[in-house]
Specification:
single chain, about 400 residues, alpha/beta, five-stranded parallel beta sheet, 16 helices, about 45% helix
Amino acid sequence: MAARVQPALFLFRNDLRIHDNSALAHALRASHNNLVPLFVFDSQQVGKDALSRLRQLPKASPLRTQFLLDSVSALRSNLKSRFGVSLVLRVGETATEVGSVAQALGVQDVYLGQETASEELAQEHKMQRKGLHIHCHWDSTLINIKDLPFDASTQFPPTYSQFRQKVEKNWVVRDPIAIQTFAQVPLPAGFDLGNMPTLRELCGVATAPRDKRAVLQFQGGEDAARARVQDYIFAKDCLKEYKLTRNGMIGADYSSKFSAWLANGCVSPRYIYSEIKRYERERVANDSTYWLVFELLWRDYFKFLSISVKTSLFRLEGPRNVQSKEWVSGYEAERRFRAWCQGKTGYPLVDANMLELVKTGFMSNRGRQIVASFLTKDLGVDWRWGAEFFESHLVDHSVELNWGNW
């Protein structure tokens, strides 16, 4: 009789989906379909004790936390209904919880999607120090890192235009992957699968605010993500006018609003790309259909940029080492920042956008540019304070895109 293959763990992070999860597909192949899926609500990223470094702001507001809870709940439900597989859940520090689950299951190998930001990389190093074998697989971008025409860490183009020109010369977008098989691994008697935490347990509040004026009532999860893609592109036929409407500020359909699901990995950029290409074949190909691909490449740019600039992304001087700006400090900086956060600057457009962010977890791209410029250029407040506030409140927060855009 053949020896039983030792099981492995798959750690979901910012890839909360089954369809076109190439890291998951790779892990299933490598483990011979002997894989235990795990998600950790990291206490350093979400919850009452997860605070930003400079301003000690909650890293994830109740709205952002609720979107994450919805996304993980949907993933757990889909794994169970489609494959009969149980998603193990834990709350705590990621490396500690992964180590504990690995020990309970006799696991040494941990598979996960590759990340680029410093805190996620620190998690991986901590797991390695616990003796675990960490296997990272690139998944999060439209263009796979292996298909770039340059080395992202040493030869990264200094501007988006140069990046796009190099990539578009002979680019390859890999086809979405459909995962067909995933078997439940026998678990030890008495092993605790874990329960979904409540919003009150994580954030200390019973419910996240829902404002009826929100451009969209964002619901986390893979099913909601794919439904939005189909609704925006095909049902409402909005894609053909995307370039003309994308800078709007009011309404559900001036832009795609895919960003929240992309940030949490509820949908892959390759799936969106495949649906854009299908729309072009079945209906029309024009500047607007190209422009949504253009925006997906913008997202890629910041993902890859973070590899080359590393932690300089979070420094006051930024990756380009800008030294000229003098920032206000002390009481005056506190007063100005507080007014900006509360939507009480006295400038109606700025204030309306900030109130939208706090009450709904979303703000238009144009709005983000306006309020960021106002905070830094007009109020003279340290841009990193604004980045931390955005991180706290945006349901579509992505480390690389938020900090890179600031």
